[in-house]
TrEMBL record, chains A, B:
Keywords: Methyltransferase, Transferase. It comes from Kineobactrum sediminis. One of its GO terms (biological process) is RNA processing. This is 23S rRNA (Guanosine(2251)-2'-O)-methyltransferase RlmB. InterPro entries: Alpha/beta_knot_MTases (IPR029028), Ribosomal_eL30-like_sf (IPR029064), rRNA_MeTrfase_TrmH (IPR004441), SpoU_MeTrfase (IPR001537), SpoU_subst-bd (IPR013123), tRNA_m1G_MTases_N (IPR029026). Gene3D superfamilies: 3.30.1330.30, 3.40.1280.10. It comes from the Bacteria. Residues 24-102 form the RNA 2-O ribose methyltransferase substrate binding domain.
Length: 264, 264
């Protein structure tokens, strides 16, 4: 009985970890591109039975067949529940394995100790173009995790995937429910929390993290929210010449992501 | 006689410098925004006589009147010659003074000696969004000049102005005719020429310029052209994690523009 419970619990944990690493991508072009990328693992292809299986849908089916990916057929309503976007899924969705996706809680349960961790947190990045560019730069740079709440940021859909140049699938994404409580958990785990703010007295380029550090980027117009600011140890500003008042948020993300290389 | 020639020559030089600092912006929204920005100097407003002087055009006229800016009326063909874009000028253009615009030759004739100069050169940046973001980051960061040939890059029009968040008017732009010969001139003046290339053995983050340095960004797809590569002292790469193969060119520009702060 105890063994059974243990097995069930372990199986549950495995299933949970499996689903947390899964991104359901939708739309004909993103799905076909994902199926044709040999570096990606695709677990299932979902098709609406309303599709005419010609042209692009035939290409998608052929790619799935060549890679031995199971194909599931659904009615439109079922497919919309899978894609979470019935308006834009074009009757096609695919479950892609993203090895770098985790829950923040799992990451914090066994945080890496070998190196000082640098996380990037997104507090209301609503423009998919910015979201994708941030993810691309963070994945390329020295960022150990991109902390992202399920709501409040641009949805991880086709626009973000395109703007990320497909790097979303490879990004170290840490999911959380709400950012303020996630930041509180990070602080308990010893992380320094820094928000990027134009009016902060300390420069990003002068700041040296004393240990694990998390950098928070605010909304493109409103900046960092009050609830998030309440969790911050300090604000950091980026000095600017020629009367320029702000940088694109994806540029700010890049300076943080690659700043570690300059500091060495 | 000798004096007269001297005066004429000096007047010519002044007029030339005047026109080199002038950017003719077109389109109703960009022109109105420029007229409403108190930090900008506008020399003239140009209107096509085909405009109905109501709505947006009335707002533009009112803004020009309040600032005492001369208004010139033209027929459509004349206005198209002024805007260089009859299809998109919407019958409106304005001459804006950009104090940071210069000819490369004038800059090299009396190069600043107080500090190590850092220039950014653009070799075929064709996407206006990228062009604007590069200009915004370069103007904000530690870049002394953005070297830009008249052809081969996205035109400095409304799309670039918008993507630059209006910072184009404040940017230190160095005009040249063709980039390869401009880079040859820079080398003669003692500049080190570095091209950004994914396959370069040396990392941008390990490179320390030995003096004045110019960093060349290539086309979004093709990279740096052969004629430009022939002028380069060396290539620099940006190391990337998670299998990411490239960065957005505006992100690369930002890492160069702000790299100087990290190096200090």
């Amino acid at each position: 009985m105890g063994d059974n419970t243990g097995n069930n619990s372990s199986r549950y944990t495995q299933r949970k970890a499996f689903f947390e690493r899964m991104l359901t991508v939708y739309g004909r072009k993103p799905v076909l591109e994902a199926l044709l990328d040999p570096a990606l693992t695709c677990h299932a292809l979902h098709l609406a039975d309303s599709n005419r299986e010609t042209g692009p849908v035939r290409d998608i089916l052929r790619a799935a067949e060549q890679r031995g990916i199971p194909v599931h057929r659904h009615n439109r309503a079922e497919l919309a529940r899978i894609s979470h976007n019935g308006r834009q899924d074009q009757g096609v969705a695919a479950d892609i394995l993203c090895p770098g996706f985790r829950q923040l809680a799992d990451y914090l349960a066994a945080p890496p100790t070998a190196s000082r961790q640098r996380l990037l947190a997104l507090d209301g990045i609503t423009n998919p173009q910015n979201m994708g560019m941030i993810i691309r730069s963070a994945a390329a740079g020295a960022i150990d995790g991109i902390l992202c709440s399920r709501r409040g940021n641009a949805a991880l859909g086709p626009l973000v995937i395109k703007a990320s140049a497909g790097t979303l699938y490879r990004a170290p994404l840490l999911h959380c429910d709400t950012l303020p409580s996630a930041l509180a958990d990070c602080r308990k785990a010893g992380f320094e929390v820094c928000t990027l703010r134009a009016d902060a007295p300390l420069s990003l380029f002068e700041h040296r993290p004393r240990g694990h550090c998390i950098y928070v980027l605010g909304n493109e117009t409103e900046g960092v929210s009050e609830a998030v600011q309440a969790q911050a140890d300090q604000g950091l500003a980026i000095p600017m010449n020629n009367g320029v008042e702000s940088l694109n948020v994806a540029v700010t993300a890049s300076l943080i992501a690659f700043g570690a290389y300059f500091e060495r």
